[in-house]
Specification:
There is one protein chain. By secondary structure, this protein is of the alpha/beta class. It contains nine helices and seven strands; from the N terminus they run H-E-E-E-H-E-H-E-H-H-E-H-E-H-H-H. It binds zinc ion (ZN). Zinc ion binds next to helix 8.
Length: about 180
């Protein structure tokens, strides 16, 4: 990664979205099926008003082992992470510290009803975090996120947002 200086350095933008979870299913649906649905999001597609859009995305599924690879986790601006991984691994340390830029969208997947007061635990992380309790939440978060960084829908605002985010990631990975 070269040091990003201008929007031309970061566009066209290929977003990577990661799912950090040990199970191969998410709210009862296989992750590969879910990812197929997410890939059809109009903002990362190449049809209609999005024809020629400079935004595209790839999706990855990793288990908790990946959390230890700081340089692999930080350069993703949309991270879905299973509740149990957040609180059992260094992920919580990343969130409480400055390791992951505050502008990175974190969505915690609450897949079990066994946790005691999970929303309060998420709130205690003292940064902006979304939660999902069904696949519909995952779809909505993905849609909302891509719309925010879509240059066809948001123009320079989206382009500058990605530039700002990449600058922050660069600082963290290279310092
Ligand atoms: Zn769009």
């Amino acid at each position: 990664m070269n040091k990003p200086e201008s929007v031309n350095d970061v566009w066209p933008h290929k977003e990577t979205v990661i799912f950090l979870m040990d199970s191969k299913s998410c709210f009862g649906e296989s992750i590969s099926d879910l990812i197929q649905v997410l890939e059809s999001c109009e903002h990362i597609g190449d049809q209609g008003i999005h024809k020629g859009n400079e935004l595209s995305a790839t999706f990855h599924h990793f288990n908790r082992e990946k959390v230890g690879e700081f340089g692999e986790v930080v350069p993703n601006s949309l991270i879905f992470v299973d509740f149990s991984i957040v609180f059992d691994t260094d992920f919580e340390v990343y969130l409480r510290g400055n390791s992951i830029p505050r502008s990175t969208e974190i969505v915690i997947l609450i897949q079990s009803s066994d946790y005691s007061n999970p929303r309060q635990q998420v709130k205690n992380l003292t940064r902006s975090i979304e939660t999902a309790t069904c696949t519909d939440d995952v779809l909505k978060e993905t849609e909302r996120y891509f719309k925010r960084i879509c240059p066809e829908c948001q123009g320079d605002l989206a382009k500058n947002w990605v530039l700002g985010w990449e600058k922050k990631v660069y600082q963290r990975v290279h310092n």
